Amino acid sequence: MVTTAPPSVFSQVLDYANRADPYPLYAELRKTPVARQDDGSYIVSTYAEIVALLHDPRISSDLHNLPEAAAASEDPPGLPPSFIRLDPPEHDRLRRIVTRHFGPPHTPDRVDGMVPDLRRIVTGLIDGLAGSTEVDIVDQVAYPFPVTVICELLGVPREDEPRFHTWVEAIVAALDPGVGDPAEVQRKRAAAAQEMVQYFAGLVDGHRRSPGADLLSALATDDGPEGRLTDGQLLATSFLLLIAGHETTVNLITNGTLTLLRHPDVLERLRHEPELVIHLVEELLRYEPPVHFIPWRVALDDIEIAGTTIPKGSRVVLVLASGSRDPEHVRDPDRFDPDRFSPDRFGLARDTNQHLGFGGGIHYCFGAPLARLETQIALAELAHRLANPRLLADPPPYRTNPVLRGPRHLPVAIDGITPARI
Q1: How far apart are CA 244 and CA 249, in angstroms?
Q2: Dist. CA 407–CA 175, nearest whole Å
Q3: What are phi and psi of 210, to 5 degrees?
Q4: How many Cα atoms occupy the beta-carbon half-sphere of 273 within 13 Å?
Q5: CA pair distance 378, 358, nearest whole angstrom
Q6: Nearest to residue 194, comparing CAs of 219, 171, 165, 169?
Q7: Nearest to 408 by CA among 251, 188, 292, 185
Q8: Which of the listed residues 125, 141, 271, 315 has the most CB atoms within 10 Å of its CB?
Q9: 43 - beta bridge partners?
């Protein structure tokens, strides 16, 4: 008689059947904080161990150290890797160049200065729902909002969005382990990436010849103290910012709306306490994050952690969403509590505000300030303006991707749209 070994817990996480609720599986994973898989990779699922490895210089993000990961990367063929695929010191230099034009200390007002435009975009999208009794939060708000924002930030013509939407879908699909024929997935990814590179090459050239106030113009003409990005580095960075600048925020806004509809008491509070949204989004990043794990890291040396030795050359998977629900790190982790990080009467937070929603270490999410702001504005406006919203499907249909986890659609019934706040 032939017996078949039961699937590993992590392989069950990858199974689409568990996409709507992987959290019980994460609890199972945490029983073995560092677990070796049959393919020789190591799954790390507890908060303390994930944080330690995010800050450990012996863990590399450079996919050249892991050939099978390089083949599945979303980086365009023929271009140098983006800075998130590099280790220090080159990672640090490139990130500093890009940060000069995105945030403090050199450009402290770029993100905060976008607030009026963010409100204008969200208001227009919600105005467009007037007269509807059923809406899809993904298609009608959560996707078009961050796409419009990143286009305006980078200087990408908004009318070109339908073109790169198709490209992004093919590229992100390559991050989804075990879905479809791998050769066909990679072929589509390479073709989409090549078309997107050609598009950006023309766009960057135009911005260099006639600079505007956008981020691409700033990067294309920058002659700062650390030099200018090469054409290849600029294209790779543009590619990264466009994809990362909207894919994760779509999930964060959608997961947030779903969570609020599942917690009507919190939704009602948000309508009357708009300031609640700041702590609410932080709890959302812990409770229903947009990125569930980092699938590609590699050990540059033998690493002893949690009683296990990860051998040099091993692939390491950091399950961020599991770490943020680790009961050794946060109390009652499976409860959504927007007051969790609020100060008590002594000015102290009841729980630590150290979630893994934006990763950590030197690769902490570059776009975190913008993603936070977009989500705060979107959720506050949706809570205020959707009249009597009700879920039409719970759970809703999810995207296949276990890494960038979120609903593909979020159908909601409403009784109407209330006027925008002045």
Answers
A1: 8
A2: 16
A3: -140, 80
A4: 13
A5: 19
A6: 171
A7: 251
A8: 141
A9: 35, 317
